[in-house]
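How a chain folds remains the central question behind the approach discussed here. This step matters because it turns folding into a mapping between discrete strings. The sequence in question and its structure tokens are set out directly beneath this paragraph.
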Amino acid sequence: AMLRLRLLTWDVKDTLLRLRQPVGQSYAAEARAHGLQVEPEALGRSFREVYGAQSRRFPNYGQGQGLSSRQWWLDVVKQSFRLSGVQDEAALTELAEKLYRDYCSSSTWEVLPGAAETLSRCRQLGLRMGVVSNFDSRLEAILSQCNLRHYFEFVLTSEAAGFAKPDGRIFEQALRLGGARPEQAAHIGDDYSRDYRAARAAGMHSFLLRAAGQGEGPEVPPEHVLPTLSHLLARIEK
């Protein structure tokens, strides 16, 4: 049966956009431009460790703990380089500022195959659309740079919402912004717990973008799985 949908909400990272190269590689390239040699693999490992620790200590970019998301990120970048052996504080500050800006641009992000076409078709079907993303305030600019912003009526980041997925309150805010009841809305994302299961817990429909051969995750009914974004239309137009 046709799902009587009015609203689609979208995750962004690895659903609509992905990084053009791994973090370690782009950080190492920026370091080289500053005359510093750092191994991309080591930087990648340092970044994952620092990002994890910072996320546990200051969840959702330090919301309510007196940090700005900008400061949160500058700290992550500097600590990642420190952990990889860079000691020069002046260089660290410059690197952090430059990378914070670079991650706002379409030279860093690329649109996933099928994303623009799928968003365009969904708009043609008359569906309202919004973004629900665990992201900081740069997301509006990134979506504009990548020419996707115009598809969406709203962009709700965890920083703006004050809650991060899988917290159901970010989905409740999205439903209010989109003027829809949960059963009239579907969320699309690539993360089982933060996207698929969290949206369902909020009473919404949801679809999990899971490329073939991505390894075994938890069981999801096949009709809720999207091997590519282009599969979405067949699922909602039934």
In short: The mean pLDDT is 94. The longest strand covers residues 128-133. Residues 133 and 139 are 9 Å apart (CA to CA).
